[in-house]
């Protein structure tokens, strides 16, 4: 074998290559390449491991943050679903009310084919002292269940229910004075609905009046009108009625 002579590096002198020369780039040691020094290599390994541990900790923190955001998104989705469910229930309830109103209107028109409603729409706006732009919104109207009257008897009563309370109050105020309802014509009677408790409060008076053959009627503002000896007497106090009877 051919032996190459050993060269003393200390005695060897050479010009250092320029930084821009390709020789410098080729002789630059690569990163993470063992340098030959065991202690330095171990230190480099520990540095790399610490960096990996730091990167792993950062990744774990990011994953935890992502999981927290996903939990918040799930919570908001649940709240949104509950809100949508409540809205659907509310819409269904409103649709049920609308259907109920439509059914009532249909039934109101079906009773006697709407003839009482047509009569009231023609008769009531012609009453004096009523606004010209008055619109009657009648929920339902039908004649009472009394027997069919004869030609000389009084017509049956018409029972109606208005949708607007203001219109009801206006008509009842006009009905308080019967002479203004239909002057020069047959007197029309307008009755109003009162609570059962207030009606029962005058039940004993009415029963006693019937026993004496006294005619009576209920007028607006809970006035008991008694007719005796051809004269009419109005009472609002039950004590005065008992004293009169």
Automatic annotation (TrEMBL):
It comes from the Eukaryota. Keywords: Coiled coil. The lineage of its organism: Eukaryota, Metazoa, Chordata, Craniata, Vertebrata. It comes from Latimeria chalumnae. Residues 63-97 form a coiled coil. Residues 1-37 are annotated as: Disordered. This is L1 transposable element RRM domain-containing protein.
């Amino acid at each position: 074998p051919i032996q190459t002579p050993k060269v003393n590096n200390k005695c060897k002198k050479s010009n250092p290559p320029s930084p821009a020369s390709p020789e410098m780039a080729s002789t630059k040691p690569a990163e993470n390449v063992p340098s030959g020094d065991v202690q330095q290599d171990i230190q480099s390994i520990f540095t790399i491991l610490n960096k990996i541990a730091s990167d792993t900790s950062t990744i774990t923190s990011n994953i935890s943050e992502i999981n927290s955001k996903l939990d918040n998104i799930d919570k908001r989705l649940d709240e949104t679903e509950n809100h949508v469910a409540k809205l659907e229930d509310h819409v269904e309830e409103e649709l049920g009310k609308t259907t109920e109103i439509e059914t009532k209107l249909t039934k109101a028109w079906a009773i006697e084919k709407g003839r009482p409603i047509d009569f009231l729409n023609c008769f009531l706006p012609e009453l004096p002292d009523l606004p010209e732009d008055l619109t009657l919104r009648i929920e339902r109207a039908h004649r009472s269940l009394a027997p069919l009257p004869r030609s000389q008897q009084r017509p049956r009563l018409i029972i109606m229910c208005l949708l607007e309370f203001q219109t009801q109050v206006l008509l009842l105020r006009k009905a308080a004075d019967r002479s203004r309802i239909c002057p020069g014509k047959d007197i029309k009677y307008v009755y109003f609905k009162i609570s059962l408790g207030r009606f029962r409060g005058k039940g004993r008076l009415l029963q006693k009046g019937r026993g004496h053959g006294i005619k009576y009627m209920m007028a607006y503002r809970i006035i008991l009108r008694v007719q005796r000896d051809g004269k009419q007497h109005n009472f609002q106090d039950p004590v005065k009625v008992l004293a009169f009877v």
